[in-house]
Amino acid sequence: MRVLLIGSGGREHALAWKLAQSLMLEKLYVAPGNGGTSEVAENVLLDPADHAAVVGFAKANAVDFVVIGPDAPVVAGLGDDVRAAGIACFGPSKAAAQLEGSKSFTKALCDEMGIPTAAYRKFEAEAPALTYLRGHGTPIVIKADGLALGKGVTVAMTVDEAERAIAGCFAGQFGASGASVVIEDFLEGEEASFFVLCDGERTLPLATAQDHKRAFDGDMGPNTGGMGAYSPAAVMTPELIERTMREIIEPTVRGMRARGTPYQGVLFAGLMITREGPKLIEYNARFGDPETQPMVLRLESDLLELLHATATGNLAGKTATWRPEAALTVVVAAKGYPGHYEKGSLIGPLPAETESLKVFHAGTKRDGERLLSNGGRVLNVTALGGTVAEAKERADAAIGMIDWPEGFCRHDIGWRAILRERNAQLDG
Ligand code: AMP
Ligand code: GLY
């Protein structure tokens, strides 16, 4: 099979690395890719926002299958345009991707299907939103309705903070994405990410993971795209996975079919595990970044076969098998991220790879023999271990060997799992 993967981050290097191992693969292109994807595929300079260019390249190069990595091209309907040209595509339709693209769309589906989620109200104007807020009190969560590069959510502990978030949305801080605002109740619990392949009708649960969204140790500092992740997430017991499938995922798939917009792709559920059980925080219509990086290191099955079966409605009878170890990714980012940072600094030689250690590139580019930083999140050091603690030690040791003074990372990725492991040892 000739495959074109769209995207340029650490998630795409991880997907490309795993796709490249498939016996079904004949040729892999990544557009636009990064300094890591060029090791396992051919990078092509294409703008994913230019659908005609993507389709044109796919046709000219006899591509059989397009895989979309990031959210923006999925939500913009690149999948529809690729399929319209007669090429199979992993990535839901624009209509189905509203599960990620519109918070109020997902909330309405939850209401309709009885899916557990935080109670909410949607507002199109500032004054009624402020009135509702003052009657409700804090903590409370303010969300720009549309896509906002992961920055549209404010978990407000004070009324003042909530008022500023509401004002910001209606003042155009997130452009059209903030023209309507969802205000929802604060959910208390531990968060987990859950990934399920859906072929429109059938589902195949993949794996659980936990992300670390704040920039600094101790979950302090600004929100980022994610500074590290590990898989599986111990908080997601087999019972909770079963409940999430029954109460959240299956009704979503049924609801989307009933609307005439079946969901075909990976459904990434952001969950809060509350005292009453799992509740949906949000859906994403794509794989997580950085959650994908530890997941692919654990995956034994052929990723290309699974993604193609998903895209063509053939998940029946498919299974996914996983290594028994835990996997953990530490993101090494450019100093200043998620605010202003410099690009173009020299990254020293990367540590040797083993079966238990893989350095995925997120924001890098090659300049002849040199490797240069080219983004905010730059490297994703990913390791396997018998425990999360062991995987973390391996990743930390590898990071210690990388000479890149312009970078920083968190030192406490996986802390919840490591604490659990320690407590279990003490109990045992
Ligand atoms: P989202 O972009 O919807 O994933 O929200 C970003 C982050 O805000 C989530 O990962 C949660 O940590 C937090 N968050 C969102 N909604 C809620 C909620 N209803 N209660 C508590 N925390 C939330
Ligand atoms: N790591 C969170 C996301 O991919 O949205």
How would you describe what is shown here?
The chain has 428 residues and is α+β, with helices and mostly antiparallel strands. The protein has four domains: 89 residues, Rossmann fold, CATH 3.40.50.20; 55 residues, ATP-grasp fold, A domain (Dna Ligase, domain 1); 124 residues, D-amino Acid Aminotransferase, Chain A, domain 1, CATH 3.30.470.20; 102 residues, Glycinamide Ribonucleotide Synthetase, Chain A, domain 4 (Alpha-Beta Complex), CATH 3.90.600. Helices cover 31% and strands 29% of the residues. The chain has 13 helices and 23 strands. α1 runs parallel beside α10, α6 crosses α9 and α7 runs antiparallel to α8. The protein starts with a strand and ends with a helix. The relative contact order is 0.13. Bound molecules: adenosine monophosphate and glycine (GLY). InterPro entries: ATP-grasp, ATP_grasp_subdomain_1, PreATP-grasp_dom_sf, PRibGlycinamid_synth_ATP-grasp, PRibGlycinamide_synth, PRibGlycinamide_synth_C-dom, PRibGlycinamide_synth_C_sf, PRibGlycinamide_synth_CS. Keywords: ATP-binding, Ligase, Magnesium, Manganese, Metal-binding, Nucleotide-binding, Purine biosynthesis. Its cofactor is Mg(2+); Mn(2+). Its EC number is 6.3.4.13. It catalyses: 5-phospho-beta-D-ribosylamine + glycine + ATP = N(1)-(5-phospho-beta-D-ribosyl)glycinamide + ADP + phosphate + H(+).
